[in-house]
Amino acid sequence: MLANCEPKSAFKFFEEISRIPRGSHNEKGISDYLAAFARERGLWVRQDEALNVIIKKPGTKGYENAPPIILQGHMDMVCEKNAETAHDFEKDPIKLVVEGDLLSAEGTTLGADNGAAVAMALALLDSSDIPLPPLEVLITTGEEVGLLGAANVDGNLFEGRLLLNMDSGEEGFFCASCAGGGRVDLFYALEYCDLPDGYAVKTLKIKGLKGGHSGIDITKERGNANRLLGRALKTLQSKLGVQLAGISGGSKDNAIPREAEAVIAFAGAKSTELASAVKDIERTFKREYSASDEGLEVRLEDCKENVNKIFAQPLCARIVSALLLIPNGVHAMSLVFEGLPETSLNIGVVSADEGAVCISSSIRSSVSSRKEMLIEQLNAVAEATGAKIELRGLYPAWEYNEKSVLREKAMKLFAEMFGKEAVVTATHGGLECGIFYEKIPGVDILSFGPGIHEMHTPNEKMSISSFARIWNFLIKLLVSLAEAK
Asked: Is 143 among the residues known to form the active site?
């Protein structure tokens, strides 16, 4: 599929890893592939208990004694697909699609975030004709679900003190800071009662939203399907006394949910009133989100399940209240980087199993005290609505270094190669750089990458020409750093 894409060596590996399922928590196959890749080439390799892989390659002739450079990316990808797409992320390969300059996937996320970094690193490790300093390649696991692999990396294994993180998705932008964050779960113990006589059930669906990356796209004011479902349910509870028999929404904490649904129970005699109320809700939502989510739909559909039990009424009220009270969206904008959100929260996933309804949120902030503020707000919501709260995957912010020598050298080279200045920026997305800054004393870090659009959605696309430009830039930067005195 990618045989005609340049650079061929890197795109060959991108296609290879696209055949290996590598969603978060399912990285054993790709981790073993990376370790085997290194062993087959006689390279030093370490695969740790978290399935992170470190591969070291000596410098080429003339650069044997240059200081090592750390190249870093993550092997896991966000697994999102369109509702009508038949794809099993546990076993099916990603079906690649090339349209002009854009590489995408058939109805699913592409995995360029962060397969682009993995492919470039493998091509460099495999090369025999590219002049390079000693490389220490670190490919981590669980980045998309809270930087889990990075938290388990042994910083003592690295000699390098220059780290190139290749997990930024906009060409010409050098990321020099990122938010800290984590996940917060609210659990509501399930309580059931019998479906009342004369009651009917329907499935209420919120669909057609654009979604997006909860860090990068959070300022675009796109609709959050879980929040909208909460609003719709509150209206229907107040007007028609509907009850819940099931609820779900979103699939990843760090993806703005595009779809959500609830199985609702209502007095059968009020079916006409219910249909009318749902139409009113749809008109309201469409008006509010006409500029950001023109495909938004609110639909009533026949329930495919046989329902004879519903959630107890107090539980219904607590769940809906939580969906309205959780502080979703942007809470503060950065005063250092124009247009950058400083603090935000995304209600990412609502799920119900046999024991509880869980509402999972992703919090982000480049100011630690404001991250703690959001956690306290969620504690207050949990207390007010009778939920058990759990925190997981907390990670530190990567603070801006005003005196980064690595950034200065990269800026100079970029201007020489492309005739324009790179933009120094920060990201509200979670990068592993903050963790490595703590684990590797004195490390200087820069993050960059090729142009990738609509990450964490089935519309994810990567520019092929941008990938090629960043590949050439990376090679020249590595040589430049090796020759620096």
From this structure: yes
